[in-house]
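@channel sequence for tomorrow's demo:
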Amino acid sequence: MREFKKWYFRIYLFFVRILIVSMIIGISFPVHVFGTTELKQLYALSAVLMDADSGRILFSKNGQEERAMASTTKIMTCILALESSIMDSENQIVTVSDQAAAQPKVRLGMVAGEQFYLKDLLYSLMLESHNDSAVVIAEAVAGSVEKFADQMNQKARTIGCYSTYFITPNGLDAADSNGIHHTTAEDLARIMRYCIMNSKKQEEFLTITRTETYQFQDVEGKRSFSCSNHNAFLNMMDGALSGKTGFTSDAGYCYVGALRRDKRTFIVALLACGWPNNKSYKWSDMRTLMTYALDHYQYKTFEIELPVRQIFINNGIKAHSDTIAYPGKNGTKISLTANLTPVSFLLKEDETISVDYEIPDQLDAPVRKGMQVGRIRCTLNDKLIREYPVYTTQNAEKRTFKKCVEYIFHLFSIQNSYQKAGNIKKDQAR
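structure tokens (generated this afternoon):
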């Protein structure tokens, strides 16, 4: 009996030790995501779900934490190349430098001095994630890797990515005096959103990233190459649009992908989603987050009305071009207008839009036609999503002593006109 207790205690300690080690290294068991029961468990240390149409973050797990992003970097490299003037020529030729040829795997296997058509290397970049192709593209667009990195960082700031820093065009782990090559899950989702929604080259980007296989040769036709798309997500869920994988020892497995279904477009960004041998974790997280989005978010349309059609103008007179207006005792009223188009927004079942009317009860004269006098604000979770200005449709002059005198004289002139007309009729009757 005593031996059995010792044996049982040893087993208990063994499993406790395993549990403690697992918690310390943080990769053996998936991490529970906040209190959202529908999402259950995610493997990624940082994850974001975004509504691509509005840019709203629907779900975030450590979404603002800075991490290495590996080859997901290449979506920025691709879109900058597509938007560059160098792409104006479809047959733009580029030459392989020593630096490009020396890049580590994964690589196309270029030799210094070889020449390629730039458009072909974009497929090498995005389908096979070749590191040497990334450097050739960067040097062709900007003249050097360093100058291209500057363009990448400038573009990141332009689209609202303030927690991203690029050093390389291929995403290999790197560091300089400003820090490490990094992004956040939120910023990575924003970059993908720009590529598929806002860039003038969005269609070209989607064409490249959705291509299953691509064959090309060097300019001289001495060598042939074949590229296959390694983005398994494209065949995983209906409506899959685009995506890019990534892996380095620092970054772990990373992925950013987009899906469009029933007029809804979602983006998921995953960073540090496991390390070898957990290559499939990212696909599990993608399915979990995309399924959650499809099941819980639908477009809802709200009709917005103008509650106040007129506004009182204190000490005001309606302005008329052909007559002198009655000055009144206290003031007058003028009409209001607003361009109230319906609000259509992607919402969860329990979400609703709040409408706040910021329209004053009265204004002091003078008031000019077309002047903004208020606004209607539509908010979701205290964040502004739509704003409608409210304008006046008429002029209103200030009521002054002079205006009152002018009106009195106007009345006398009208009365005199009536009297003259009456006298003329009497004379004619005689």
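heads up for whoever presents: The chain has two domains: 31-297, 310-410.
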